[in-house]
Amino acid sequence: MSTIKQLHKKLINKDITSLELTQKYFDKIEEKEKDLNAFISLSKKEAFKQAEKVDENLKKGKEIDLISGIPCALKDIICVKGGKTTAGSKMLENYTASYDATVTKKLKEKNAVIVGKTNCDEFACGSSTENSAFGITKNSYDLTRVPGGSSGGSAVAVASSEVAWALGTDTGGSVRQPASFCGIVGLKPTYGRISRYGVIAYASSLDQVGIMTKTTEDAAIVLTRIAGRDELDATSAHSSGRVYEDYLTGDLKGKKIGIPREYISDNLDDAIKNRFFEAVDKYKKCGAEIVDISLPNTEYALATYYIIAPAELSSNLARFDGVKYGTYPEKKDFKNIQDFYKEVRGEGFGAEIKRRVMIGTYTLSSGYYDAYYKKAQKVRGLIRKDFEEAYRKVDYIFTPTTPETAFKIGAKSDPVTSYLSDIYTITANLAGVPAISHPIGTIETDGIDLPIGGQLFGEWFDEEGILNASHTFEKNF
């Protein structure tokens, strides 16, 4: 496993060129993709062009950034100018982005090598990457299991070393849950820390670009380069020039970590519970004080999320009508505009999107808005208050990332059981706080050791704190 700093050192020492490094990663992709299906599209020409540019700069003796010349991937919901951005949907299978997302632009400015776009649940709706119009992505630990979702393609690409790191998006756990299932690090920053401009929207008040890496330090390095205020995204925030990797001191003395009793219920798998408390003991050994806390409104989080998120999805996806956006139907003779929309959206959207759009439209409809959406927003406020109260007592909150290890493909055909996969992650999005999942061990399942993650929540805009805590754990264990 090579980290960003290790690869950077090889480049500046001329042990390898960026072109050679990029070719090595493409070779790995060619070798593994037939089994994994982590990518929707590859951009070889553009990747080699970027790598060549980095090699030229090195030849001229110019300094290069830490991520320059190092291959990465973007979830196929993030726009790259001139390339396809499908959002994992048949609706956008022929859409070519006419502009770069702000995160894409920032990566290009640093000369990162973007090798392609990764597979995801359609419009980021799902917890397994089974809901893609471009096939199921498979977990590299066991090809009969899901990688998690919706950023499953990015997680698998990193876990199987098809790229050094990748970007995903996290609306209710879509970076952290697949990170847990695939044994990597997944960071969801504070809402607004990274610009969402050029990222196809699912639920606008919950979405955040996330980072998937093999180490916490790599996540910090990438965050430094893509965080910050963007005039094109009114919800984005200033980062005050923070260099997040400089905060990784490896010291947790004097820090308090809260363990919320609501997350350690009888429903939690015993094997995961045991691994979790082993991780708690390790945090103690790192110098942290462990404090029992309560987040009492956690029990309402899942219901709250599955009212707010589908409502915002139904609003955001209204633009995909086959006229402005979306695939134009082959059928030409329509009696009226309603028939046209039925054809376009009926053919273009998958079953999970239709389900969530119908739920969202219902909860926003006349007579039901106050009963559902408005009430859910009030409960969301209570969930945020729980975190505010907790942070008066502790610096960070630690929980399991998921209630289970990666499940078998097709095992959760019932949508409700699939939604329960997000039970520990959605509160971070509802409250807007930063959260990171890092590996805490493995559990033997059907004769295979499957990874699980532990999740750290931090105060609003304290990414440096949870990054340092995660890094300290990683460094010592």
Keywords:
single chain; eleven-stranded mixed sheet; Amidase signature (AS) enzymes; alpha/beta; 15 helices; globular; 477 residues
Tally of extended strands?
11
Taking the sheet with the most strands, its summary is: 11 strands, mixed
Report strand order across the widest sheet.
1-3-2-4-6-5-10-11-9-7-8
Low-pLDDT segments, ≥5 res: none
**Kindly state the mean pLDDT as a whole number?**
96
Output the structural class: alpha/beta
CATH architecture of the domain at 4-180 and 195-244: Alpha-Beta Complex
| Overall morphology | globular
CATH class of the domain at 4-180 and 195-244: Alpha Beta
Order of helices and strands, N to C?
HHEHEHEHEHEEHEHEHHHHEHHEEH
The helix fraction, in percent, is 25-40%
- Discrete helix count: 15
Q: Within the CATH hierarchy, at the fold level, what is the topology of the domain at 4-180 and 195-244?
A: Amidase signature (AS) enzymes
CATH superfamily of the domain at 4-180 and 195-244: Amidase signature (AS) domain
3D structure, described in words:
The protein is 38% helix and 14% strand. By secondary structure, the protein is α/β, with parallel strands linked by helices. Strands 1-3-2-4-6-5-10-11-9-7-8 form an eleven-stranded mixed sheet, with helices on both faces. Helix 2 (18-36) runs antiparallel to helix 3 and helix 9 (301-316) crosses helix 11.
